[in-house]
């Protein structure tokens, strides 16, 4: 079974600064996907960024980038130029790679509450 | 394109009752997954449906069940409600299954059991 660990329950950052959210996972799988999801207060969960394990290059999406260390089973999210709208709960998630029609179960970490201060 | 919709958004029930929650995936999406979110346990996988077949089931008692219709809409049912079933129930849809496609989440149904 896979496990995802987010050891920091809360973080705070000043607007316009950079913050890094940590995530580690445990799996015996070689092919898998990793995700960061964002859940703003009382709002819908949305995908921030995804990483395929077979890709060595770290994924980036505008101000969001990851540091994927496969051997260390570490997957951290860096948010640059933090904005007030980044205030949310952030979840790290894991999914086994599967062939067409295979299951799509996401295993989530406990989440981290990020507050961006004006 | 409309996003994932879930109905109802809020629900209050009493112990012992039964409840049915509905999820309409994004048009064209065939995979629907359900998750339970609580402050104590976080996000836990309930089950996944693809082409009307349950592909995977999480570690929940048999009181939790679901189904998927030919138009990919999905329902989950919880019978004999317990206080511990109070949670936000999220559904997510994706084009296919197997992780190649992003899962898009609905706004959730907030269930309160009194």
How are the SSEs placed, and which strands pair?
The complex is a heterodimer of chains A (118) and B (114).
Chain A: E1 3-5, E2 10-14, E3 19-21, E4 24-26, E5 32-39, E6 46-52, E7 60-61, E8 64-69, E9 74-79, E10 88-96, E11 107-108, E12 112-117
Chain B: E1 5-7, E2 10-13, E3 19-24, E4 31-38, E5 42-50, E6 53-57, E7 64-68, E8 74-78, E9 87-94, E10 104-105, E11 109-113
Parallel strand pairs in B: 2-11
Antiparallel strand pairs in B: 1-3, 3-8, 4-5, 4-9, 5-6, 7-8, 9-10, 9-11
Write up what this structure looks like.
The complex is a heterodimer of chains A (118) and B (114). Helices cover 0% and strands 51% of the residues of chain A. Chain A contains no helices and twelve strands. Chain A is mainly beta and 118 residues long. Chain A has strands spanning 3-5, 10-14, 19-21, 24-26, 32-39, 46-52, 60-61, 64-69, 74-79, 88-96, 107-108, 112-117. With 114 residues, chain B is mostly beta strands. Chain B has strands at residues 5-7, 10-13, 19-24, 31-38, 42-50, 53-57, 64-68, 74-78, 87-94, 104-105, 109-113. In chain B, the strands form two sheets. In chain B, strands 2, 4, 5, 6, 9, 10 and 11 form a seven-stranded mixed β-sheet that branches. Chain B has a four-stranded antiparallel β-sheet with strand order 1-3-8-7, with no helix packed on it. In chain B, a hairpin with a 3-residue loop joins strand 4 and strand 5 (42-50). Classes of the chains: A mainly beta (118), B mainly beta (114). The A-B interface holds A 32-33, 37, 43-47, 50, 91, 95-111 and B 3, 31, 33, 35, 42-45, 48, 50-51, 55-56, 58, 90, 92, 94, 96-99, 102-108.
């Amino acid at each position: 079974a896979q496990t995802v660990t987010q050891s920091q329950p809360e973080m705070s950052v000043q607007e316009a600064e950079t913050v890094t959210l940590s995530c580690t996972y445990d799996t015996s799988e070689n092919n898998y996907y990793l995700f960061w999801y964002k859940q703003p207060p009382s709002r819908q969960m949305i995908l921030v960024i995804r990483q395929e394990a077979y890709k060595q290059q770290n994924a980036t999406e505008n101000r969001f980038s990851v540091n994927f260390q496969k051997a260390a089973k570490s997957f951290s999210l860096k948010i640059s130029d933090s904005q007030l709208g980044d205030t949310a709960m952030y979840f790290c998630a894991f999914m086994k790679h599967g062939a067409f029609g295979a299951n799509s179960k996401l295993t989530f970490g406990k989440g981290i509450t990020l507050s961006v201060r004006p | 394109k409309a996003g994932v919709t879930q109905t109802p958004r809020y629900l209050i029930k009493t112990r012992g009752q039964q409840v049915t929650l509905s999820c309409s995936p994004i048009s064209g999406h065939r995979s629907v997954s359900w998750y339970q979110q609580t402050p104590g346990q976080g996000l836990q996988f309930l089950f996944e449906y693809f082409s009307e077949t349950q592909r995977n089931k999480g570690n929940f008692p048999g009181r939790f069940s679901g189904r998927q219709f030919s138009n990919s809409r999905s329902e989950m049912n919880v019978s004999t409600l317990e206080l511990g079933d109070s949670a936000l129930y999220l559904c997510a849809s994706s084009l296919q299954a197997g992780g190649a496609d992003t899962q898009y989440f609905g706004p959730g149904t907030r269930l309160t059991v009194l």
